[in-house]
Amino acid sequence: MASRARVGTYAVTTSIDADIAPGVIFCLRAEGAVAAKGQQSDYPLAPIYLAHVGDDGAVLLPFPQAKRILDRLKRLALGRELPDDGACAKFDKDTRQGEDMRHAQKLLAAAVASVVGKNEERAVASLFSPGGTHAMKGEFAGSNDFEVAAFLVVLPGNGA
Predict the structure, then answer these.
(1) pLDDT for 33-46, tens place per residue?
(2) What is d(CA 133, CA 130) in angstroms, rounded to the nearest whole number?
(3) Is residue 100 part of a domain?
(4) Which domain holds residue 123?
């Protein structure tokens, strides 16, 4: 029986690749009715949604680009078996030991909005496609419909 990671598990690292901008990579899990609706969609990872949000709040890679997000995670983790003590110390200082997570919450809101928005776009697009619509009022209401399964904080590298 596989063990399940605790909700909200996170790690902190620095970007060593110029192609990977600082920010947070979120792994969100849809809950309740939203999860059931997502599993009926054409999105193969439902109810799991990945998003890479930059430090400025811009969604760098939305959930439909899960393969690219997973590639970034692999590049960030490859060869790093031990915690990045410098990155962890900086994150702890910036967040006052996790007491001030406002910036991360702002980025989380952007990640959730990107999932909600993409699903709303798909629902609206289905209005104009053969076979009818799957748009339903309140299909993806917002952050209360998701939990943060895990996230990776990507801090600027030494050269940034």
Answers:
(1) 767 666 667 788 98
(2) 8
(3) yes
(4) 68-128+145-150
Angstrom distance (rounded) from CA 56 to CA 111? 12
Q: Tokens standing for 44? A: 């193969």
Contact present, 58 and 110 (Cβ < 8 Å):
yes
Is residue 25 included in any domain, yes or no?
A: no
Residue 42 lies inside a defined structural domain of this protein: no
Q: Which residue has the higher pLDDT, 110 or 40?
A: 110
In the chain, pLDDT over 90 holds for what percent of residues? 56
Query: In this structure, is residue 58 part of a structural domain?
Result: no
Locate 134 and state its tokens. Answer: 């799957």
Rounded mean pLDDT of the chain? 82
Q: Rounded distance, CA 113 to CA 141, Å? A: 9
Say how many domains are in the chain: 1
What pTM value is reported for the model?
A: 0.81
The 3-state DSSP class for residue 64 equals: helix
